[in-house]
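Worked Example 4.2. Consider the chain below.
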Amino acid sequence: MVINLTLILSRMKSWWVIPLLMLILSQQQTWVHSESQVPCYFIMGDSLADAGNNNLLLTTAKANYQPYGIDFSAGATGRFCNGRTAADVIGQLLGFSDYIPPYATARGQTILKGVNYASGGGGIRNETGRDLGDRISMDGQLRNYQNTVQQIVNIYGRKDLAYNYLSKCIYNLGIGSNDYINNYFMPTLYPTSRQYTPEQYADVLIQQYSQQIRTLYNYGARKIALIALGRAGCTPSALAQNSSDGSSCVENINAAVRLFNIQLKCLVDELNTDLSNASVIYLNTSGVSQELVNPSFGFRVTNTACCGGGRNNGEVTCLPLQTPCQNRTEYLYWDRYHPTEAVNLIVGSRFYAAQSPSDAYPMDIRSLAQL
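Applying the procedure from the previous section yields the following structure tokens:
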């Protein structure tokens, strides 16, 4: 049976939104039995979407240990969450019967359903996240994607057939947060805050990101979803370091991120004008996440991580075998940076089927898939 999730989502205005979503999307994708709405789904980004690409890298940005994955069917896979990421939820709603595999393990015919290239610590800029160790920047993810495209060309035997196939797929891009939290706002390790004002830095990032998206387009992508940055000044890490009361968001960080998001939305219009036969959309992470602090959504703990240590549980990451909070559906944040599965269920669902005109521009992922 296929559940009309869109109808259900349209009625979700009360505290019971989270438990109902958890019930509907529980136990992997057992409720989905129809054919996927698009032939493949490619994911690029950072730790918000990483599904295991960092597992074998020399980096401190790892999540392939318990209690990460405590609520995930396959356990600790390298996802920076207690359960599914928003990218996973979108894949479910698109009708895929399995999670999209990380590039690190994707082999053979499985790549025809899509590949996840996201890497914890990765950014638009190549130096971003170097304090964490190895990571795969957006440029590196594009190189990996180009390798995948060549494999798909080899499978089809003809480039035109392969590119026609790729033109029907959804591309989910969510990157840029680390360019702020692991670059611009770490002045002792990176020079960017001395080189650029926040306005200039947003310009530089968007210019580079624009070129990267155009490279993706040149390798077959036509249906592209650009995920805006979340409120980085509201994470337990930001609150622990810079909030006087431990609950008020850090405005200078959020203000800088807003500049990026404003330009990202403008970039959507530019790309839709410049790129023939392409459809690019903007997904409003900050708008959705800001709503979730409303008590009607049931998140009782909005400033402290479910797993971590120090002030707000935001000074130390979630450690191996640490005992996390028990009431995880009541927490906005799983660890010092990343949302809980309960949040990802709502965010992913609203990106797929927008509940508010501000959720997606100029359309949501469901509409993009139907083009």
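The first strand starts at residue 41 and ends at 45. Residues 1-16, 27-33 have pLDDT under 50 and may be disordered. Compare this with Example 4.1 before moving on.
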